[in-house]
Amino acid sequence: MDSRAWDERYAASELVWGTEPNRWVVRELAGLTPGRALDLAAGEGRNSIWLAALGWEVTGLDFSTVALGRAERLTASLPDEVADRLTWRHGDARGLEAPPEGYDLVVVAYLQLPAEDRRAALRGAAAALAPGGTLLVVGHDSTNLTEGVGGPQDPAVLFTPEDVLADLAGAGLRTVRAERVRRPVAADAGHRGPADGGAAAEAVDALVRLERTA
């Protein structure tokens, strides 16, 4: 995992991921009572900004200074009451240092790492949860290589819901949901869709939602 490579990727285009929050983040978290949230590997901040608009006090952490700079520019255009709830931090998800009080929510969305690094990041995320807190992990599933479209083509950085549960075994978390979910991919992303005679393009994601029991 090379921060320089991600800096270059973010610098090459405007808003790599867009401004809309991830659909699974919205589906799973829209009904939660706002509190303190950590968006781990926040990128340009789309999920952090959405959470802040709902009333969460959000820390967005990423190791790309280019992505964080873009997140800060987006924050500057927000209403003050939303912008004031956002804090951007530069750091590596694999070496997370959480405050003693912990977070009510930790989001790990599309952090695609080799297994050992992924395990370190996820266990750090779990340790950062306050009692009763929610951990949401979403990413490109291993089956996306053969059953879906887009995403990384290196199987070493893909994972399954079962991998996430194994990574977090013994961490004191209760599984709320662990499943594969299919996400429509826009035709303009280079995939065939109904408009050009092809079947609807879909990506396969792994989704795991857990809660700290105590």
From TrEMBL:
Domain of life: Bacteria
Organism: Kitasatospora misakiensis
GO biological process, one term: methylation
GO molecular function list: 2-polyprenyl-6-hydroxyphenol methylase activity; 3-demethylubiquinol 3-O-methyltransferase activity
Domain Methyltransferase: 38-133
Entry keywords, A to Z: Methyltransferase, Transferase
PANTHER family assigned: PUTATIVE (AFU_ORTHOLOGUE AFUA_2G14390)-RELATED, TRANS-ACONITATE 2-METHYLTRANSFERASE-RELATED
Keyword Transferase among UniProt keywords: yes
E.C. number: 2.1.1.222, 2.1.1.64
Record flagged with keyword Methyltransferase: yes
InterPro entries associated with the record: Methyltransf_25, SAM-dependent_MTases_sf
Protein name (record): Class I SAM-dependent methyltransferase
